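Hi Q.,

Before the meeting this afternoon, I wanted you to have the fe (ii) ion prediction in hand. No need to reply - just skim if you have a minute. The sequence and ligand are here:
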Amino acid sequence: MANPDDIIPRDIRFGILGNAQRHWLEDDIIKTVLIDGLSVFLPEGERFFIRSLKHYAAKMPDRQMAAEINGYAVQEAFHTREHEEYNRAMMSLGYDVEAMEKPIRFGFEVVKNPLHRLAITCAIEHMTATLSTLTLRHPDLLDKAAPAYRRLWMWHALEELEHKAVALDVLQAATPEMSRWQRYMLRVLGMNGTLLPFLVIFLRNVPIYARADGVKTGLRFWLRFIWVTLGYPGYWRRCLPNVLRYYLPGFDPRNSDDAELMRKGREWLANDMPPGSGAAPAGKAG
Ligand SMILES: [Fe+2]
Ligand SMILES: [Fe+2]
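Predicted structure with the ligand bound:
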């Protein structure tokens, strides 16, 4: 079980709306859409995750588990608030966030079974933890980002790492009657049901995003898109091995020791955020 003391919700406002910036990462539309495109998923996604876990919270007799779920929910609620503002900032720049969000909302709404919702939450938490590990291991990837955006993504990465095991802990506790293999199959189905729709929706949204910039998404655009994701810096290529680890029958997110990464992330946040922002260690809350 995760240590609830590691899950530290930080009530920080990043002021993205007041600092809205087009192509905020290296003035590069492809690098920026790869990250802005994730934010489009987040408010809907994070509300879905909170509901998925809270459904089981009341049934958990274990106080430590209840504390984990509570820390998780508070962190995700702050993330939702900041990503709603982030997405409003995108709208203020002319991006059609509503059109991009539509299939995402539909995708989350069609899943009604609480156990399926939980399995999907586990899968997405693994994907966000993977991206967060990449971000915290290579903060240089965001060196040239606009400061408000860089701070928000580093904060989000740190907290995703802190709570990465919570959903899987809940899955384990919520299915005592299942054998290891049944639970494994549920996990795999959750990941299969997540990965493909995520990729399809993400790629569908890229031209909607580019249209707002007056950029044509022709062959040249897509060849460079492939290069940036799979070649250099190769964001998706670097994530792939860890995403696939989820398919190992004995997968346990705690197998990789993230204590050092979390320490670095906390130090980075305390140093990079303006004083009084709530990012310092004293910012521990809820
Ligand atoms: Fe989050
Ligand atoms: Fe999360």
